[in-house]
Write a structure and sequence with these properties.
Elements (H helix, E strand, L loop, with lengths): L2 E10 L25 E12 L2 E9 L10 E7 L6 E9 L10 E8 L4 E8 L6 E8 L6 E2 L13 E13 L2 E10 L4 E8 L5 E9 L10 E8 L2 E8 L13 E10 L4 E4 L4 E2 L7 E7 L5 E6 L14 E2 L6 E5 L6 E5 L7 E9 L7 E6 L4 E6 L2 E6 L5 E8 L3 E6 L4 E6 L8 E6 L2 E11 L4
Parallel strand pairs: 1-28, 1-32, 2-21, 25-31
Antiparallel strand pairs: 2-3, 3-4, 4-5, 6-7, 7-8, 8-9, 10-11, 11-12, 12-13, 14-15, 15-16, 16-17, 16-18, 19-20, 20-22, 22-23, 24-32, 25-26, 26-27, 28-29, 29-30
Amino acid sequence: MFRRSLILLIGFWIGSNEAINVTNSRYRQNYHIIAPTGWLNDPNGLSYFNGNYHVFFQYDPTSSNGGGPKQWGHVTSTDLVNWKYTQPTIALAPDQSYDVGGVWTGSAVNNNGELTAIYTGLHNNTGEQLVNIATSTDGVTFTKYSGNPVVPTQPIDGTNQFRDPKVWKYNGVWYMVVGNQSKKNHGRTVLYQSDDLRQWTYLGPLADEPDNRVGSMWECPNFFYINGKHVLFMGTDVERDGDHFANQGLNVYFIGDFNYETKVFSHAVDFYELDNGHDFYAAQMFQDPKNRTILFAWMNSFGTNFEEMQDGWAHTLTVPRQLRLSSDGSRVQMIPVDELTLLRGTEYINSPIEIEGHDLRLYYDKQTGKLVLERTKDVRQVDMGSIMQLNLRIFLDQSSIEVFANDGNVTMSSRYYKDPIPTITLFAEYGVANVEFQAFRLNNIW
């Protein structure tokens, strides 16, 4: 007989939401970032500027299948919780020869009181993927640089798969990583530097894996310093290995040390998944005024059937998460930002409870030592190691679940489709679980 203590904190919203220009609100999210209508994908340009948090996102307001040229949608918040669409909601549109095929993924930085967006543009005539910039003094209205593109060609040692610039500043110098496929068709991240965000010098590959074990193209790279180490994470296509790398498109990361003099990133051979759920991709991070490393991701996997597409909209971002390293420096951990407690309304229940349901199953298997999230018989599971107690914090919205286990050692993010909201089954295989259950009704921000 197995007895295990489970301390569960579940946050969820129950109720209706008046959708904005959509045909059905049954799966419409209530406290996650979503587009007003149409298609949303990668988070872009994460930044803090003029007293507001800014989240831009890949946006196609014309359809729910993302078939049109991409634009940058835009929301702002003073607290990382209550988001508002800017007016206009479209910050950057494809209206120049160098980006008429789409304003694709990129980043944003505060350059001496000017918010500068650095983005991928798809050229009208050549189909090349180019790096461009646009600037804003108010954080809402942007002017594209007359000298675009600032990086007019891909590296000479790479293919035309060249996209998703992420920029940061160190000791007065701007640096940029970009995803690029090598001419031998393996994934890699390349490095640039600049004094003014307009003239860029190619420094060569920051990291690559010639044996293709980390996929053929590295998208949405992020490179940053945290807790004494440098972390590189990116979206890619890794071959499945048992329970690992189960999604069609996922975020993985390396941890190591970067020397700014030699421009060498020395990292461990092993790489790891950033999230172990069904739907998590195109993650992006930024540093906020509290010196926290904050992340958003697109809750997506390319094998998922997203049922809301028939309702006139598609996709959602994760809740904001704070990144840190584990105590031994070997893993990236993610926890919900503290501000999310502002969403809490009425406490739903505060007593031991047996939770029943059949649409989502979240359980800990003592025999295998794995935490399992099962969605309509599609299983994701993670080895939790030797533990005596399992602490779970779960965010359940109209069509998503995010699980944070043992203070961010493991996270699992997944979409689901059940009208109305399903219940969650929590149980321990081959034994009995003592469950302390606390839930809050979360406010609707839209």
